[in-house]
Amino acid sequence: MARTVTPLSDPKCDAAKAREKDYTLFDGKGLFLLVKASGTKVWRFKYTRPDGRSGLATFGNYPALRLKAARERRADALELLARGQDPIEHAKQSKFEAANARANTFKALALEWHAACSRKWSPGHATTVLRRIETHLLPAIGERPVTELKTRDLMVPLKAVEKRDTLETAGRLRQYMTGIMRMAVQHGHIDSNPAIDLQGATATRKAAHRPALPLDRLPELLQRIEADSGRQLTKLAVQLTLLVFIRSSELRFARWGEIDTARSMWEIPGERQPIEGVKSSHRGSKMSTPHLVPLSRQVLASLDQVRGLTGRFDLVFAGDHHHWKPMSENTVNKALRRMGYDTKVDVCGHGFRSMACSALVESGLWSKDAVERQMSHQERNTVRAAYIHKAEHIEARRLMVQWWADYLDANREKHITPYDFAHRADAVNVVSIKRA
User: Fold this and answer.
1) 353 is catalytic
2) For the whole model, what pTM was predicted?
């Protein structure tokens, strides 16, 4: 017959005095108070583990842990045993998970993600990303363990940025959080990525397309450029922007060492030597890979004029006041405004790219790959990008840029469509070569 145990009470626990040897006071269902000879009173729980072995758990000292709290611990342990779990192993696992959570905060994972990604980013971009994370994400969720973060928690910093109407930044932050939490999944810290459901959570601004003139207004544009009253270097910068249709930073930060007039080739590097005190001057080709720009006869002639102005300097388009700094990023658009164009509605320097692309496509002479490569619209797929970066289109691209320069000359007095110019009666039979 099982022995009857009289449950303990707090007064009885308080009254228990130390003896020469340790002794126990039983409360029942495995819980007892061990009174040590030193006077310390410790709650213990004796049980049988799921595998049949004996187990002994320590809950804490009395009176810091009162009788009611000790019984609650016993109830929790009995519930675990009913589910086939060992209370001691469960406590160890809980401590491990708690320590892991403290170590793997969003901040810790964000910095680890940033360090990994920085290896493939330019220094300037890496600095920008880290500044955005530190400014917008870490104050709100940086100290939170990633195991605790839900989609609603990640929404908090996004909505704060959205309220300030910096929608592009909000979109970037969403991308960063998706990457950070994806890494947390990959490292086994969480089972699923809560940032995936942030897609569409913030407003987006309608894409603003850069204005470009219809091609039938080319004669007007060319005549206004020729009649422009600005300084000679500015006029040449506008002309070259139209002729080579590269991006603003690619032109502004150009160095003479990149241009090989003997080969009629300009190689824009993936990254340039930064200029102290000039923001983003490290930029080369937008895709951060070298971009070849074949040079037409007209471009070479214009560059010859530019060389007479800045050839003694490193920069092709040196600034007005300091030759080691480039011309302003607003130079070309300011010149267009001086010519009477609204650069937000009519045409801007970047719009020259659209005009060239339209003419090349409408001519019907070149493959889409060749046009896209000359526009430096490199594919994100790294295998295909590496393939089309090779110079298999370079001869076609040489013909292409010369055709564009000749087409502009043909439009100086009267407009002619790209197709008509490409198929005019006096045209040289080069269509099959251009398609190669």
Assistant:
1) yes
2) 0.58
